[in-house]
Amino acid sequence: MNTASWWWDTQMTLPIGAMLVPVLFASDTTHLTNFSGDGKVWPLYMSIGNIKSSIRNQPTSHTWVLVALLPNALKCVKRIPGWSEDKQEQEGIQVIHDLLTFVLRPLSNTARDGHNVKCCDEVIRRCYFQVAGWLADHMENSTIHGIYSI
User: What is the pTM assigned to this prediction?
Assistant: First the structure.
């Protein structure tokens, strides 16, 4: 990741001595079991881009941390007066967006103001955490980013 021009361009806007910490998110709906209905979970994982990708991508390195379990889209109820299936779907997506806002809010402060972090070499540095990527399939990206087909 540190070979990307975005990283260096963003680093140049930070104060001297500060460090950029690109934050990565990954999510994928996971099927739980065939024996107790159609149970699914939607885990949200987080890692940082400062970790070398060959290490970050090894399952045994434990560099991806579970941050939240997002709700899956619930099945719509067809016979509720005044509450159409479209309205139910929109409210379900709004719940997901509200949860993501809650989970990501602490990052907005550190992206703007920075945060003192003790690094592995025992030096305290001013770090600026910024969301740099989100790994998800097409349907999850559509839900997360509010992209709707017409």
Answer: 0.79
